[in-house]
Amino acid sequence: MKLLGLDYLDISNQFSEDELMVQKTAREFVNNEVMPEIDHYFNAIVGIQNDAADGKTDAGLNWLSKVDTPKKEILLIGDTVHDSDVAEQMGVHCVLVDIGHVSRERLLKTGRNVFESLDSLNKYING
Q1: Domain extents for the chain?
Q2: 32 CB-near residues (< 8 Å, 6+ apart)
Q3: Based on CB atoms within 10 Å of each CB, which residue in 11, 61, 79, 101 is the most buried?
Q4: What CATH number does the domain located at 42-126 have?
Q5: What is the pTM of this model?
Q6: Block means of pLDDT (10 residues each) for the chain, length 127 residues?
């Protein structure tokens, strides 16, 4: 099982696998456990309300229309090929992290920088 937690914040070891499995939904886990730990690191976190990833592009484009930040200053951090496609449609930078269900090989085929963990991405961004 890949660690789904934010390893550089080391929250993954606060829960046993059993505790992770009894969460009602992944969204509930993210909203209740992950977001309070990370939201202060970002200007915005844009999400969708379904598990099929429908609407990610529209959500991203909608958010872009409401901000003054130049696209060249925006970084989309994802873990799927679809996230790369969304960034392409939005015209923003994108990096992928190999912590999801998509194989590293498939992520590399996007031509994006692929990081093995959020910790390695954090080190890359912050030097």
Answers
A1: 42-126
A2: none
A3: 79
A4: 3.40.50.1000
A5: 0.67
A6: 40 46 56 73 68 73 89 89 94 92 95 92 84
